[in-house]
Amino acid sequence: MTPLSSAQLALLAEISRRDAAWTAGPPTRMTLAPHDRRALIRLLNELLPPLTDALRELTAERDRCHERLEIDYVWQLGASGEFEKTAVPLEERGRTPDGIECRDATISELQKALDEECALRPSNEIRNLVVHALSGSPKDTEAALAWLDAIPPPKKPRTPR
Hints:
Layout: H1 6-24, H2 34-69, E1 73-77, E2 83-87, H3 99-135, H4 138-150
Antiparallel strand pairs: 1-2
């Protein structure tokens, strides 16, 4: 896009000034001299293609981001009993958890399950050692007791970020 001339900038400034005046009071009919009207039409014709291209690029980027966040569709149970991918209208997107929120919730649940498993593991190992020690020799019992003494105290579970 070529830079705007001083005349084009002046015309846009005048339109902007009048527009600001319109917001302050009731709208009045904007009158432009014929040469200003032609200049405005030329200016709009010059600005419209780049603005249309920019809008097209922004729309594509928005759609790409919505797809990445997985908010452009939902899975619904269809009439056949199978799950079907259903498009979500643009105005309804963002009302449900997006892919990042779902990922974070999954990580949190996995961390909880891991913490619970880690909390149970020493007690399972202790149980197995005690059963083995009771059924084995005194040497096995001594080894089990030494192993129990070497177990560090449990750590506090990590909290997800």
